[in-house]
Every structure is written in structure tokens, then in C-alpha cells.
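Retry 2 of 3 after timeout on previous attempt. Resubmitting C-alpha cells to design endpoint.
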């Protein structure tokens, strides 16, 4: 049994809170930290975001301590696992301090705002005794896991083209609206689109280069992107992301993947299951596990801690790569040029 402390109990902190509660035999929430008194006291039923939070926080029967200062939470010996759900500009500082305090650290994506911060985190992780993982929930999402499976095992033949999409309205819910300030949030590409950036890197490896077009909003960053990833195989890969639709649009994530012997589509906003369209005109809807990516990533991180092994499904180095590619995609939008990705797996 590990003791868990969440630092930052806003939108995603509330989702993590609910996910940890699903593992009562293995983990106990022992500490919450937030600068907001209600949030650190666990009064979070009214905390919202750009996704519906399905599981509401219930009285837990577990008692946790509340902290306003993260350093005090890090000093608590009953906290073994620190779950960082803070605004992006605080990830590096707090993750490094938590690793140095000897804790296991799960930190929300994106890893950090820039590569210098990512590199300092990687350095701290190498010296640390605790496990470290960036919470790349899409790698753990059932539909995206299924897509990775069928790309890898080629049960429908080789992949011929891929289009991923993440489409939303402007997220104005964050504390003091930090998310709308590119200098501390990194803009839509770093915050929303980076999910797919990380996933495509996971699915197909590093591209040779990226070429992107989009809408750049002064102060807020790139709000809208169509990003073309170039691979030696010449498979067309389009990664689309935006958060500038009017509020009624809601949130969607999904993909269309064409294989030699099937087409596979999914869009969460439609409420329809992932569908595999076959050459003879029939279609299949493979059953997906019911747990979402957040619960799966947390359970996986806990497996790694319990089994004393470093996370492999998502490594900190790969999360650093996602930040590097996202920065290249933004650069391409701003310069109109193709940006080379100068490293290989
Ligand atoms: N994986 C996902 O699907 C997903 C979804 C949303 C957000 N995120 C990521 O999670 C992080 C948090 O985003 P959010 O939407 O939950 O933001 P949020 O503003 O809703 O929550 C952040 C919380 O941190 C608290 N906080 C701020 N500074 C603090 C400090 N110094 N000490 C303690 N608490 C402090 C705020 O009071 C707030 O409650 C971001 O990095 C974001 O990119 C991930």
C-alpha cells in the first residue's frame, strides 16, 4: 500500500483524485496540496474543465492532510507517491523537488514548457530512487491502445494513412486563466495537441520532419493546427488540433486509420464505438475495456512501483521528445517552413 499526495487539485487533479480512489487495496490518498483552501480540503465537486468528469468525488472514508505549500507535502513521510497536476510552468520545479525528496513521481503532460526544463527533470530522474512517469493518458486510452495493437500486429495489413484529431472550444476554466497565457502554458499545441504528438511518436516513431499550418493568436499561441508528419515510408499522417471553436462545439478526440484490408474510425463526441470497416462491406465494433486512460495510466504507474521496474509504456525521454516535436510544429506554423526532426529512436 502506497500513500499518495496530489499537488494541484484543479480539473485534472480532480480526475486523478477519482482514479486513485478506484484502487483502495493498493493506494491511499493521504495528502492534497493546492493554494485554494477548498480544493486542498477535498471540496472539489464543483471543479470543472473541458471534459465532463464522470465519476464525482465521493466521501472516501480515507483521511488526508491538506497543504498550501507543496514543500510541506514533500516533507511528509507518509507520502510515497506524488501526483503533480499543477499548471505546466510548475511541472519542472515541483517534479525535481519531489524526485529529490525520494518520492515516486507521476506528473501531468506536457512534461514541461521547454527542453531545458525537460532535461533538468531527466537528470533528476536518473539520480532519483523513485519511479518517474509523465501522465500521457492517450497511450493508455482503450481506443488508442487498440489502434496501436493493430498497427503493430498488422492484422488488417500495413497502415496506409492516418488522421488524428483533437477538437475543442476555448478552455477558460483554469485557475486565474493561466492556460490562455502562452508564456506559462505553451499554447494549444503544447497543452492539447501534444497528446496526439506524443501518441503518433509512440505509434510510428520519430518523423523525419513536420510541416504545419495554423492560426497563431498573439499572447495565446497557436490555437489551431494541421500538422503533416513526414516519414521515410511516405505514409500520409495528418495530426489536427484546435481549441478555438465556439463553446457549443464541445470536445472531440478521434482518428481515421486506413489499412490495406480495413478502415478504422473513432470520434468520442459521436458516442459511437470504434468501428472497423472491412472490404466486403461489413463492419465490426471490437469491445473496448471500460476504464479510461487516466485510470489505466495510474494503475500502470502503480504496477511499476509495486514491481520495482521503470515505466516502459511511456518513458520520460519519450515525453521530452513529444515536447520537442510540439515545439517544432509551432515553429513550422510560425515560419511556414518544414522543420526537420534531428534525432532517431
Ligand atoms: N491529461 C489530460 O487530459 C489533461 C487535462 C487537463 C489538463 N492537463 C494538464 O494538467 C495540468 C493542470 O491543468 P488543469 O486543467 O487541471 O488546471 P487547473 O487550473 O484546473 O488546476 C490547477 C490547480 O493547481 C493549483 N495551483 C496553482 N499553483 C499552485 C501552487 N503553486 N501550489 C499548489 N497548487 C497550485 C490551482 O489552484 C488549481 O487548483 C496542466 O499541465 C495541463 O496541461 C491534462
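Retry 2 succeeded. Sequence:
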Amino acid at each position: 500500500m502506497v500513500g499518495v499526495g496530489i499537488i494541484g487539485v484543479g480539473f485534472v487533479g480532480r480526475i486523478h483524485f477519482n482514479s486513485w480512489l478506484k484502487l483502495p487495496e493498493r493506494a491511499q490518498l493521504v495528502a492534497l496540496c493546492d493554494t485554494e483552501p477548498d480544493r486542498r480540503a477535498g471540496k472539489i465537486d464543483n471543479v470543472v474543465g473541458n471534459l465532463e468528469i464522470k465519476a464525482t468525488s465521493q466521501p472516501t472514508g480515507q483521511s488526508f492532510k491538506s497543504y498550501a505549500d507543496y514543500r510541506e507535502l514533500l516533507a511528509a513521510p507518509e507520502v510515497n507517491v506524488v501526483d503533480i497536476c499543477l499548471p505546466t510552468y510548475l511541472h519542472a520545479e515541483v517534479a525535481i523537488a519531489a524526485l529529490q525528496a525520494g518520492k515516486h513521481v507521476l506528473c501531468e503532460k506536457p512534461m514541461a514548457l521547454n527542453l531545458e526544463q525537460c532535461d533538468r527533470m531527466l537528470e533528476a530522474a536518473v539520480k532519483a530512487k523513485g519511479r518517474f512517469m509523465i501522465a500521457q493518458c492517450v497511450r493508455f486510452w482503450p481506443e488508442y491502445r487498440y489502434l496501436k495493437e493493430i498497427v503493430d500486429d498488422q492484422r488488417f495489413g500495413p497502415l496506409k494513412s492516418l488522421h488524428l484529431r483533437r477538437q475543442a472550444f476555448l478552455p477558460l476554466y483554469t485557475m486565474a486563466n493561466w492556460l490562455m497565457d502562452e508564456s506559462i502554458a505553451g499554447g494549444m499545441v503544447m497543452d492539447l495537441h501534444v497528446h496526439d504528438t506524443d501518441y503518433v511518436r509512440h505509434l510510428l516513431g520519430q518523423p523525419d520532419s513536420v510541416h504545419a499550418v495554423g492560426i497563431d493568436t498573439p499572447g495565446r499561441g497557436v490555437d489551431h493546427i494541421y500538422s503533416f508528419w513526414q516519414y521515410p515510408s511516405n505514409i500520409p499522417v495528418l495530426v489536427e488540433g484546435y481549441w478555438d471553436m465556439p463553446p457549443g462545439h464541445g470536445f472531440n478526440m478521434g482518428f481515421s486509420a486506413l489499412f490495406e484490408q480495413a478502415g478504422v474510425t473513432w470520434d468520442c463526441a459521436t458516442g459511437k464505438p470504434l468501428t472497423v470497416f472491412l472490404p466486403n462491406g461489413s463492419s465490426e465494433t471490437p469491445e473496448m475495456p471500460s476504464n479510461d486512460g487516466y485510470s489505466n495510466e495510474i494503475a500502470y504507474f502503480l504496477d511499476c512501483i509495486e514491481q520495482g521496474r521503470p515505466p516502459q509504456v511511456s518513458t520520460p525521454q519519450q515525453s521530452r521528445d513529444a515536447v520537442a516535436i510540439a515545439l517544432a510544429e509551432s515553429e513550422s506554423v510560425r515560419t511556414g517552413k518544414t522543420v526537420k526532426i534531428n534525432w532517431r529512436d
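Attempt log closed. The CA atoms of residues 113 and 186 lie 6 Å apart.
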